[in-house]
Design goal:
Layout lengths: L6 H12 L5 E5 L4 H10 L7 E5 L3 H11 L3 E5 L25 H18 L2 E5 L14 H4 L2 E6 L8 E7 L9
Parallel strand pairs: 1-2, 1-3, 3-4
Antiparallel strand pairs: 5-6
């Protein structure tokens, strides 16, 4: 979704339900833990199973996942993460290694996919869309994930639309 549309708010509301039966780790690269706590209180999201980490370094996130063993990992947003291994000369000549670059977004998403498949962690990756309405980053990301949902609408209006653009497990002709 576009910046400010309510992606983080929607995910926190989803965390309330997920926390009833799963251990959830919410990683925010954009907001501090205190900011998330204030939003969660405003939304009445409270769970003993909801853990928050304000972090952008992929290595630190993976270490936290290893120690906390969550059932669900939420990454908000993929454009804020960076893999420190890409900072080395082996990261590729001419590739930008700053968070949000195509190589960083792709590498971080690949690492999260390996985590999901290897450890059975359900991973939600929040991403921004650009002015053209495409996911900010390489189009190949849509092919890497199981489901792509677009959160659309005017941020000043009451209602938003959640539209499936890809779903390996079901239909894409429904909206919420």
């Amino acid at each position: 979704g576009a910046p400010g549309i309510g992606k983080s708010t929607l995910m926190l509301q989803i965390c309330k339900k997920l926390g009833e039966f799963s251990k959830v780790l919410y990683v925010s690269g954009e907001e501090s833990a205190h900011q998330l706590k204030l939003r969660a209180q405003r939304l009445d999201v409270e769970s003993e199973n909801l853990y928050v980490l304000s972090e952008t370094c992929l290595g630190n996130i993976l270490e936290c996942v290893q120690s906390e063993q969550p059932d669900v990992l939420i990454v908000d947003s993929i454009q804020t993460l960076y893999n420190e291994d890409l900072d080395s000369p082996a990261g590729g000549v001419g590739q930008s290694t700053s968070p949000g670059s195509i190589s960083q977004v792709k590498e971080c998403t690949m690492a999260l996919m390996q985590l999901a498949k290897g450890q059975g962690v359900t991973v939600f990756v929040i991403g921004h869309v650009n002015k053209e309405g495409s996911i900010a980053g390489p189009k190949v990301l849509e092919h890497m994930v199981d489901c792509v949902l677009y959160f659309e609408g005017d941020q000043h209006m009451t209602y938003r639309i959640l539209r499936a653009a890809k779903n390996r497990f079901g239909a894409t002709n429904e909206i919420g």
